[in-house]
Every structure is written in C-alpha cells, then in structure tokens.
C-alpha cells in the first residue's frame, strides 16, 4: 500500500503540481482511503519530503569502466534519461518553485539532488584518482559542479526537449579534460 501511495504522489505531482496536490487526490489515485495516507504522513508536505528523501537514498550505481571519460558517459546517459523522464521533468521544476517558498522542501530537495549525485560523482573521482588519471588534491567541489551542472542546466533549467547528436560524448570528453586540468 505504501508503494501505491508513493506512486500516486508522483502521478499527482505531475498532473496538478505541489500547490494543487491534495491528500484526497493522492488517496484516489492510490485506491486507498485518506486515513491510510494520514496514518503514514501527517500532511502533504511530510509525504513529499519523505519521497524526496527516499530518492536521495536510492542513488545511482557508480560506473567503473576503467576510464574517467567512459565513467562520466555512463553517468550522463543514466542521468539524462532520469531528468528527461516525463514525470521527473514535470515534478522537479515544480518542487524547485515550491522550494523557493518553503525552506523544508528546499532542504529536502537540496539533500536529494546533492547527496544522490555527489555520492556517484565522488566514486567516479575516487576511482580516477586510484588509476592515476587525476590528482588526489584536485578541487573536489569544482569537479562535482563540472560533472553535475551541464545536464541539469539543459534538462531542468532551459528544458531542452532533446540533446543534440553526440552531446553526451562531447560532454564526457570536455568534463574529463576539465577535471584533469584541475
């Protein structure tokens, strides 16, 4: 039942957005009564925070192909698909707008996005250091920004409908070279 409710939250967020989302709508989509939702979460805010926090824990598998550039390419392929998923592409901008007005949502979004991406990117960087591809004392925060920023910019900020042909390969090469220069 909890999974049905969580799935219903994503559907409801995509359909009506956070501001218009209601426990009644979630319960209807999940095929449960409102009391089943309220038994687990005391408000829609707590429900959304729980789901956003759960996403942070899931994380992505860290690729380890033996080369920084190909590790980045795999990460970008998975991240690009996730950001362009029809539900995610509607939910993320809406939650960010709510985060501007609600510090609790802002904190949960920041944690979900930062921690999830950071753990994978940190693993990629650690493996590259271990192979001698990059310096151990590089500016880690800058490297993480270089890894995480471009796809997020394209998919979420400017909402580009699709990536140009060869973009992920070019991005992987450019990012790997930039990180090596740090």
Automatic annotation (TrEMBL):
Residues 1-59 form the HTH tetR-type domain. It comes from the Bacteria. InterPro entries: DNA-bd_HTH_TetR-type_CS, Homeodomain-like_sf, HTH-type_TetR-like_transc_reg, HTH_TetR, Tet_transcr_reg_TetR-rel_C_sf, TetR_C. Keywords: DNA-binding, Transcription, Transcription regulation. One of its GO terms (molecular function) is DNA-binding transcription factor activity. Residues 22-41 bind DNA. This is TetR family transcriptional regulator. It comes from Streptomyces naganishii JCM 4654.
